[in-house]
Amino acid sequence: MTQVSLPYGHSTLPLQVPDENLAGVYRPLTLPVVEDLDAEVSWALSHPIGTLPLPRIVRPGERVVILADDHTRSTPAHQILPLLLEELHRSGIPPSDIAILITHGTHRASTEEEVRRKVGDGVYGQYRILQHDCTDEANHLYVGLTSRGTPVWVNRAVLEADRRIGIGHIGPSPYAGYSGGGKLVLPGAASLDTINANHSLVPLGFRCPGRLDLPCRLDIDEAAAMVGLDFVVDVVLSWDERVVGVFAGSPDLVFRAGVALARRVYEVPCSPVDIAVTSAYPYDIDLYQAVRAVEYADAVVRPGGSILLVAACPEGIGGDDFYHLMADSEKRPEDFLKDVVRRNGPVTFSVLGYALARIRAEKHLHILTDGVPAPVLEAMGFYPVSSLQEGLDALLKEHGPGARVAVFPAGAATIPVPEGYR
Question: 2-28+271-418 maps to which CATH number?
Answer without folding.
Answer: 3.90.226.30
